[in-house]
């Protein structure tokens, strides 16, 4: 519904000149690691983030953001309505949406007519807010089917936000920190898959060096401790400790949280809208909620968001609380099923009309299951045992599984698996398992029983570990018997078949998710299949859910044909052909050492200094007495002692320890009673025989407590030592070469790669034989003239160019240390490819006998430079640098003498602060270091940016070649 409009608007933006993410999208596509739905979801996300300015959907809606080129003059409405729409964008936007035709019918015909009849009586802003759940922040749902890669998509969003945020730290559109909420019922199956965020390669979505730097920044914590009872406090709450440890200004913090058990159950929900500030401070049950409210620029990612519907009101309360604190950037929901069990009704006007939405309305992206089956999931074969009993369906399903997968092994060495779901532990243990063992005679070592156990049948020993290891090549389990596990979130690609033999083997609302557990892709570009056996009840439920949630059917799934695998090009090393030696160079190696600059005995000195200077932390209390007619004049008196807050020395020590999250115990503090008690006496006074905190100090009490804790710390400094280390780097790590999908940015192209390899084998020269060409030209000219066709003779230069080898072939002995170079993977808007093609044509390049090698495909080269920046008196590592090209000059003995490093950058990446530091290091320290060591200018560096046209960049490159290789 809405997502279709958003996709059309997004595609128009991507095609426009003002699209700010073209280079990012091009980079991701050319990198080739993400699937189509993941890339499209990223495009949608960035469209709403950047073009939509991260606004709530209702606001974008009422501002006319989603109006699709509708001309008022051409609408079949009267002039009065046309005039009204011209001044009311919310009304016009809602009318356009309601009247949009779907299968020749309006989206919402009743609403369309109501707007025409009562246009001035409707509250369009309220209607829009009601449609989008009255949410006043960016709240988007992305729907991708199981196996499409939602976890990697989450990781992509995290890294993209961090990338843009690191470039624009004050821009509130992009998140600095992330909270991933998952349903408690899926904890055991989803937590392990979410850990893959840690292992995600950010260079799939952002270029190096930013990718590596951000990966190093990312901090990943799972909040799964169960010690968060209602009477807990921060000192004892390990989850709260983890959150507090990153405050006050974290960047790159990712928390994965069990939504119900850790968040919702530990939060105190009140009937009033919000606690008063004083009550909130005393409310220890909500410590974790309050701490999350202090994390700045927080994005919330809710996995399997449809599970949160039962707790939706509570979850909304919590998110709204954080938003009221001003720290929510975006809320993202992920689900394979964006359709609601019951359609939601929204009332318009004074209850005149209700209209229904069956899909979750904030769905901004939807990728259908049937498309995933056609493109990358296993193709399912669904079989229905109508009228067959449980054990007969299981028997036939196992026979079918063994027929299809008897001797199969996947590329990772793992064998296919069959999951048989059971409705209860008793049925599994008393019926199904004995049937497999006794009637079918299966090997017991190949059967895994996994359930959580009960009084009669405890959980099988070691079953959970076996279950977690099913996708490993050392797992010999084929037949997996399950009760109440593995229905959703179970990531086991080698699961190749599922049996639901009776109603109740899966909850009715999860038959679709359970059936499709076996569709995950194992090996790319293979026509993989999966088998699903169902009884009639489960088949009817599956068909109903497929129709309701995916607009497809079992028949369509069975008839789905997978799209043909992509056109791939194998890659080959030519290092031996070119006799390309290793690169000799020097690296700077920096060692770090922490040095204590003071003894622990200094704690006493610091506390004594605090005691002696405590009066500097007082706040003067002044009372002025005057009359109402002359406020400027009066009597002023100073108050030295005031306040009614009860004070206890032992409680004070406890508070100091608690505020430091127990890192300094009360026993440690008590060891310094002789210094701390005078401080306590200084900040308290006797009020009618009761010890109270003196309000002169009370506003600085936290500062005083903090200084006391700091007194227990030891000052340390970081010392660095440097050394100059000789290195040798191979320009190609040959075993890492893998096939690449054929694309227009391969050099040489697929056909010419074959030609180059043939010439390598034959040794035939690519140089022209001028005399032979002249003879051939004269012969052709003579024949044409003798036949009266002299006017069709082309010029000699044209004839010669036709005989010449393509530039890619002619350059084979001065480049291509592997075939082919993939300039489509670099994301530099074509600058790398353009520079490469211009370089090999330069006269200076050819005359000086230079060679050029592409070094920019990360992971294929050892020539990587460690970069540092001076920070005060020590060096700070700022990451690794891999130059795009090396232009080299050899000596007579074929050893490399000089190397020009060429860096090309798209404008989008040029202002990356980390890259700037690396460039500074290369241009200054690295070049000078190697000059000193080799005794001559062995390396030089040139930076080219696509803000200049290719002609200007080529001239700069030519000038640098002339200057450097002439020295």
Detailed description of the structure:
The strands form twelve sheets. A seven-stranded parallel sheet has the order 5-6-4-7-8-3-11, sandwiched between helices. Strands 12-17-16-13-15-14 form a six-stranded parallel sheet. It has a four-stranded mixed sheet with strand order 30-33-34-35. With 967 residues, the chain is α/β, with parallel strands linked by helices. It starts with a helix and ends with a helix. It is built from 40 helices and 35 strands. A hairpin with a 2-residue loop joins strand 31 (865-871) and strand 32 (874-881). The radius of gyration is 35 Å and the shape is globular. The chain has six domains: 1-132, no CATH class; 138-336, Rossmann fold, CATH 3.40.50; 369-565, Rossmann fold (3-Layer(aba) Sandwich); 578-587 and 729-763 and 805-966, no CATH class; 598-714, no CATH class; 767-803, no CATH class.
How many strands?
Answer: 35
What is the residue-averaged pLDDT? Answer: 81
User: Portion of residues in helices?
Assistant: 40-55%
- Main sheet? 7 strands, parallel
Please, how many domains? 6
Shape: globular
Rg, Å, rounded: 35 Å
Straight-line distance between termini: 67 Å
Helix-strand layout with pairing:
Blueprint lengths: L1 H14 L6 H10 L4 H16 L5 H6 L16 H9 L1 H11 L1 E2 L2 E2 L2 H9 L6 H8 L7 E5 L6 H18 L9 E6 L4 H8 L1 H4 L10 H8 L1 E5 L14 H9 L6 E6 H6 L12 H6 L4 H6 L5 E5 L9 H13 L3 E8 L3 E10 L4 E7 L3 E4 L2 H7 L3 E7 L4 H16 L11 E5 L3 H15 L7 E4 L12 H6 L10 E4 L12 E6 L10 H5 L13 E7 H15 L3 H6 L8 E2 L2 E2 L1 H4 L4 E14 L5 H11 L8 E5 L9 E5 L9 H11 L6 H5 L2 H11 E4 L2 E4 L1 H4 L2 H11 L4 E14 L10 E2 L4 E2 L2 H13 L7 H17 L9 H8 L3 H4 L7 E2 L1 E2 L8 H9 L3 H5 L3 E4 L10 E7 L2 E8 L3 E6 L5 E10 L1 H4 L2 H22 L4 E7 L4 H17 L1
Parallel strand pairs: 3-8, 3-11, 4-6, 4-7, 5-6, 7-8, 12-17, 13-15, 13-16, 14-15, 16-17, 34-35
Antiparallel strand pairs: 1-2, 9-10, 18-26, 19-28, 20-25, 21-22, 23-24, 27-29, 30-33, 31-32, 33-34
Helix pairs in contact: 1-3, 3-9, 5-6, 6-7, 26-29, 26-31, 27-31, 36-40
């Amino acid at each position: 519904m809405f997502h279709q409009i958003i996709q059309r608007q997004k595609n128009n933006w991507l095609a426009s000149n003002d699209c700010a993410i073209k280079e990012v999208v091009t980079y991701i596509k050319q990198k080739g690691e993400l699937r189509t739905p993941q890339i499209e979801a990223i495009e949608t996300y960035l469209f709403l983030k950047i073009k939509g300015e991260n606004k709530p959907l209702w606001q974008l809606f009422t501002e006319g953001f989603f109006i699709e080129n509708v001309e008022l003059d051409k609408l079949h409405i009267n002039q009065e309505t046309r005039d009204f729409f011209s001044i009311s964008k919310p009304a016009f936007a809602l009318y356009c949406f309601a009247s949009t035709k779907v299968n020749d019918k309006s989206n919402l015909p009743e609403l369309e007519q109501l707007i025409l009849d009562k246009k001035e009586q409707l509250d369009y802003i309220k209607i829009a807010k009601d449609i989008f759940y009255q949410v006043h922040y960016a709240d988007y749902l992305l729907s991708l089917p199981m196996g499409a890669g939602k976890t990697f998509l989450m990781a992509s969003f995290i890294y993209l936000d961090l990338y843009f945020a690191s470039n624009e730290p004050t821009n509130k559109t992009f998140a600095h920190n992330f909270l991933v909420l998952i349903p408690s019922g899926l904890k055991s199956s989803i937590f392990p898959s979410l850990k893959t965020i840690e292992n995600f390669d950010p260079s799939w979505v952002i270029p190096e060096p930013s990718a590596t730097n951000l990966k190093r920044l990312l901090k990943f914590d799972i909040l799964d401790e169960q010690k968060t009872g209602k009477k807990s406090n921060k000192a004892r709450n390990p989850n709260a400790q983890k959150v507090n440890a990153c405050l006050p200004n974290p960047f790159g913090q990712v928390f994965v949280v069990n939504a119900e058990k850790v968040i919702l159950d530990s939060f105190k929900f009140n009937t009033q809208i919000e606690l008063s500030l004083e009550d909130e401070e005393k409310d220890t049950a909500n410590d974790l909620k309050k701490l999350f409210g202090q994390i700045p620029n927080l994005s919330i990612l809710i996995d399997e968001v449809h599970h949160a519907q039962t707790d939706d009101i509570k979850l909304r309360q919590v998110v709204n609380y954080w938003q009221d604190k001003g720290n929510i950037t975006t809320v993202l929901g992920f689900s394979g099923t964006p359709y609601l069990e019951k359609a939601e009704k929204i009332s318009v006007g004074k209850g005149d009309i209700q209209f229904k939405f069956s899909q979750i309305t904030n769905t901004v992206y939807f990728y259908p299951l049937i498309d995933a089956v056609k493109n990358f999931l296993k193709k399912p074969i669904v079989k229905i045992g109508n009228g067959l009993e449980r054990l007969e369906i299981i028997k036939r399903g196992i026979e079918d599984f063994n027929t299809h997968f008897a001797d199969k092994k996947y590329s990772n060495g793992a064998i296919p698996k069959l999951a048989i779901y059971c409705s209860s532990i008793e049925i599994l243990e008393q019926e199904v398992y004995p049937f497999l063992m006794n009637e079918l005679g299966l090997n017991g070592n190949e059967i895994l029983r996994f359930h959580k156990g009960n009084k009669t049948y405890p959980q099988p020993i070691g079953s959970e570990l076996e279950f977690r290891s099913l996708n490993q090549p050392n797992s010999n389990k084929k037949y997996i018997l399950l009760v109440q596990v593995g229905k959703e979130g179970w990531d086991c690609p080698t699961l190749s078949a599922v049996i639901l033999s009776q109603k109740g083997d899966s909850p009715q609302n999860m038959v679709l998710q359970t059936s499709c557990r076996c569709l995950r892709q194992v090996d790319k570009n293979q026509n993989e299949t999966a088998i699903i056996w169902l009884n009639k009840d489960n088949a009817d439920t599956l068909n109903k859910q497929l129709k309701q949630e995916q607009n497809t059917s079992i028949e369509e799934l069975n008839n789905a044909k997978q799209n043909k695998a992509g056109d791939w090009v194998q890659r080959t090393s030519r290092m031996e052909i070119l006799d390309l030696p290793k690169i000799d160079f020097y690296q700077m190696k920096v060692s770090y050492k922490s040095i204590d600059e003071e003894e622990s005995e200094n704690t006493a000195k610091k506390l004594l200094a605090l005691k002696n200077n405590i009066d500097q932390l007082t706040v003067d209390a002044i009372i002025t007495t005057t009359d109402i007619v002359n406020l400027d004049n009066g009597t002023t008196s100073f108050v030295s002692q005031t306040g009614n807050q009860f004070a206890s020395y032992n409680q004070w020590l406890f508070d100091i320890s608690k505020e430091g999250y127990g890192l300094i115990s009360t026993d440690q503090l008590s060891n310094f009673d002789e210094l701390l008690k005078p401080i306590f006496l200084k900040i308290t006074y006797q009020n009618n025989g009761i010890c109270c905190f003196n309000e002169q100090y009370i506003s600085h009490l936290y500062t005083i407590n903090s200084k006391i804790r700091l007194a227990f710390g030891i000052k340390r400094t970081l010392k660095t030592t440097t050394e100059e280390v000789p290195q040798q780097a191979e320009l190609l790590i040959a075993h890492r070469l893998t096939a690449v999908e054929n694309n227009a940015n391969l050099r040489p192209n697929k056909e010419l790669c074959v030609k180059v390899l043939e010439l390598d084998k034959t040794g035939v020269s690519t140089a022209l034989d001028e005399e032979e060409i002249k003879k051939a030209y004269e012969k052709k000219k003579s024949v044409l003239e003798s036949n009266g066709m002299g006017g069709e003779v082309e010029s000699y230069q044209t004839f010669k160019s036709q005989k010449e080898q393509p530039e890619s072939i002619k350059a084979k002995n001065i480049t291509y240390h592997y075939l082919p170079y993939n300039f489509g993977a670099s994301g530099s808007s074509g600058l790398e490819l353009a520079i490469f093609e211009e370089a090999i044509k330069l006269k200076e390049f050819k005359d000086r006998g230079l060679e050029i090698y592409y070094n920019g495909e990360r992971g294929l080269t050892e020539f990587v430079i460690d970069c540092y920046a001076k920070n005060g008196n020590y060096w700070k590592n700022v990451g690794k640098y891999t130059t795009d090209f090396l232009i080299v000059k050899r000596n007579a003995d074929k050893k490399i003498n000089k190397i020009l490093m060429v860096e090309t950058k798209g404008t989008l990446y040029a202002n990356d602060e980390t890259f700037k530091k690396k460039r500074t290091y290369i241009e200054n320290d690295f070049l000078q270091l190697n000059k000193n060591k080799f005794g001559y200018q062995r390396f030089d560096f040139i930076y080219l940016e696509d803000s200049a046209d290719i002609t200007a960049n080529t001239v700069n490159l030519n000038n640098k070649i002339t200057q450097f290789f002439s020295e």
